[in-house]
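Notebook p. 47: complex prediction with iron/sulfur cluster.
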Amino acid sequence: MFTPPLARGVPNRPAPRGWCPGALRPMLTGDGLLVRLRLTGGILDLATAHAIAACATRFGNGLIDLSSRANLQLRGVGEATLPGLTAELERLHILDASAEAETVRNVTASPLAGLDPAAVLDIRPIAKALEARLTSDTALHRLPGKFGFLIDDGGALPLTGVSADIRLTAIATPQGPRFLIALGDAEDLPIATCEPAQLVDCAARLAQAFIDLRNQTPARRMRDLVRSLGVAAIAEAADMAMQDAPAPADRHVAISHVIGRHEISGMAYLGVALPFGRMGSAALDHLATVASRHGATGLRLTPWRVILVVGISADAADAMLAELHDDGFILKADDARLHVAACPGAPSCNSATTPVQPDATRFSQLFTDLAPGGTVLHVSGCTKGCAHASSAQFTLVGHAGRYDLIENGTAADTPVAVHLSPDEVEAELSRRLRPIKERLLVEHP
Ligand code: SF4
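Predicted complex, structure tokens below:
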């Protein structure tokens, strides 16, 4: 039985239900311990990238996931190898002071922070300050493990649609930069604005209000509280005056703006996607080597399961694309796998009985002629549906190597066909896709 390690000499409490893993409190999965690394702002320098790749090889099974919160997850770590990994992470300065501090430090920031000429301001110091408040203010350690903050710099890669409980989006005003404050899913309905210097305090007060209010009103996330009480009650509990905040601009990031070579006012970057959010340690190591050879200043992790190489010229980005060809990354936005979301499945997850990812790769070939866009197919190892919480056109839920098919729903919804073999899935999806493709051909001949 796995016992969580001591957090720098402080015994960890038993992991509560609904906990989130970290580096100090790993989670036991089907392929060993999962160690999650929360890198501030998703900023990863090249030396640390090499070191993390080496850790994944030496202490784990060599597989690394990039989560939808831009965290790296080392998989297949053994109980015997965990102490060595913990020591190495401490040496790399990516360990928190305690498991509680680590768990609450969930801040997703714009991936090009500090580099994007289109951004309203450089949010890196603000993201750091918010993390410092979250880790030092022990009253906030009562937040649920999945509770997250999002800071969008208003730049070229908006975080619209990325899940968060407290959302802070920068806007330019005649008085200078301000942040729109929104709660849960209600990103179109900001409750107030604040100055950059007030952001940490505003976020902390709203988080404390969530903790206080859920004592009377059960809520797992901020969106639950918004549905139960409304945003005005939460703002009042946070001692925050509701304001007529301007509606946020309609900003969405297209995957074609993230993958491949891009330039913003002369600032180039290269995006490489991880199929279903996973790469091997050798791929990360090679990415860092190639990036270094072309003068990159670092890597940025994104919530879209894409790694950005930054600090390069446009020519270097083109050259890198050729050199990264054999590493298993997705280098083009029209890759059919981008239409498919898949969880780790078996054998990585204890809840799975089906090898979801190889099947997802196979099924993705059905989508080769669809234009780049969002998820069309979600392949899930069980009804929990970790890889895609919202509805998808098609969802497959695996049971012992066969699949139930759900149309226009989530993994928990009622299937329209059950116990399909992978061959039958392929035939069924082809049949159901035909009218969709015909319609697309009519709309975009
Ligand atoms: S959806 Fe189920 S099988 Fe897949 S990762 Fe989540 S719990 Fe595991």
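Notes: The first helix runs from residue 46 to 59. The chain has eleven helices and 20 strands.
Next step: compare against the earlier run before touching the bench.
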